[in-house]
Every structure is written in C-alpha cells, then in structure tokens.
Design a protein that fits this description.
- The protein is mainly beta.
- It is built from 3 helices and 16 strands.
- Strand 1 and strand 2 form a beta hairpin.
- The longest helix is centred in the last third of the chain and has 14 residues.
- GO terms for molecular function: calcium ion binding.
- One of its GO terms (cellular component) is extrinsic component of membrane.
Amino acid sequence: MVSALLCPSCLGCPTSPFSQNRGIRSVIRRTISCRTSSAGSVVVCNAGACRRDFILFGFSSVATVVVPSSVLHASIELDDDVKMALLMDDVNGYSYLYPVESLGKKLAFKWVESRKPERYSSAAPLSPDARQRIVSERVDMINNVIISVSIGPPNLRYLTSSDKNTWTARDVADSVLSDKSALPVATSQRTNESSVLDAHAKEVDGSVYWYYEYLVRKSPTKSAQQPNLFRHNVASTAERAGYLYSVNASALSNKWDSFGPFLEKTISSFRLLPPTEKYVPPYKDPWRFW
C-alpha cells in the first residue's frame, strides 16, 4: 500500500511552470523499502530509487517518510541545495512539496499547520457562499509565507461549459479567485481584488493543470506601511468529479525574490492522487462536520 502511495504516476514533477530555466536535474528512482514502527499505526519508509514517474525535481539523498493515519510527510534533499518535504493527503487525494530550508540562501521555514487536512464538508469557507473551502493550510508566521489547498465547484460565471477541455487558464483563475473573495457575490469589486500576471495550462500524465500567478491588491498585513506592498501568489488548479482542487502559495511582494522560486516548486509539484479507501469526495455527506 505504501509503495503504491509513494510512487503514483501523478507525482511526476517537471520544472516550475512559471520559470522553465531553473536548471533542476531529475533523477530516476526505482525501489521503495518500508518497515512498521513500534507504534503500530505508523509506517516508516526509506524511499530509494523509484520509477521515472516519481521525479521530484531530482533527489540527492534518501528520503525518510512518516505515515500517520491519512497524511504522509517525507523529507527530501534536492540537487539545488533546497530541502523540501512531501505532503500526501489521502482524505482529499492530493500531494505537493513544500520548502523546508535552503542552505545556499540561508533560509529556514518554520511551518505551522494552521489547518490540518480535513474533508470538504467540515472545512472552513473562503467566502460567505461557502462554495470554496480551505481543506488544509500551513503558515510560516516569521517569513509571512502561506501554502493552502482549497476545493470548490466551478463558478459558472466564468466556466460556462461542462467540458473542461474548453476552459482557458485565465477563466479557471477567475473562477477560483472570485470564490475566494470575502466581498458579497454581487459586488463588482470582487473580481478586482487581484491582478492576474500570468495564466497557462499544462497536461501532466493525461490530466490538465491550470497555473496562474497573481497579486492581491488589498493590504496583506495590518502592519504594512508601504501602499505598494501586496501578496504575490502562485497557484495550480485541477478538476476532479466536478470540483476544482487548488493549491496556492504566497509571500509578501518585497520578499518574492527570496521565497518565490521555492513556492513555484510547490505549485508545480501539486498532483491529484488516485483515490484510496480513505478518499472522501467533496459531494459525500455534505452535512457532516467531523
């Protein structure tokens, strides 16, 4: 089971879709060995070489993996002197990498899991209509960096067709961003809170992922003194069973040169995973809050 989770074909991670010339080397992995810890419910795995589909920006060392009940974390050393960790959420069926530290830039991330992965029905809404909800979130309060995953149905105002092959990346971005706003649905300012800088689509392992980069116009912090200080965001969205799954990573605009390259790796690593017995689709038991 653990081998299947660690090496799904959907975990292949190419270079960042926002900057293609990072010079990141990919390495082929082929085997995984696992053992059960004394805790019984916890499985500790040593990921060695795995097949091509498990390319995660090029490993340079063995990864140690700890598997709790429904969320998997793995510490991974990357070739460009960046350590990242792998999160796999079985409840919602997705995975992504997040940065831990960079020795070259002398950066260390102090992540706090502000929202542990949970099912859609019990997740916190992003707007009054509760269409899009945060199913997980981690925050580095020292560096003011946020990574979150949200799920919600398409906004028919922007995605009018049920055929996702006709959707443009900009329409997908507008659909997701409009449902993240706290302003009333009828307010025209709702679509003007953010400015999309780039939007494009890419097919990975037969699935389409829409990538977009944008700035949030409203002040990111109460202490922000500069009127031109915004939150710089990168995001990736994929569709499954009539719902949009999105990962979003952001930092303050004046810190983007330092944190942006790592957050772009996070976005490009986002994958929807094959459902397991723990997977809970968003439409299941909408009344359930636990």
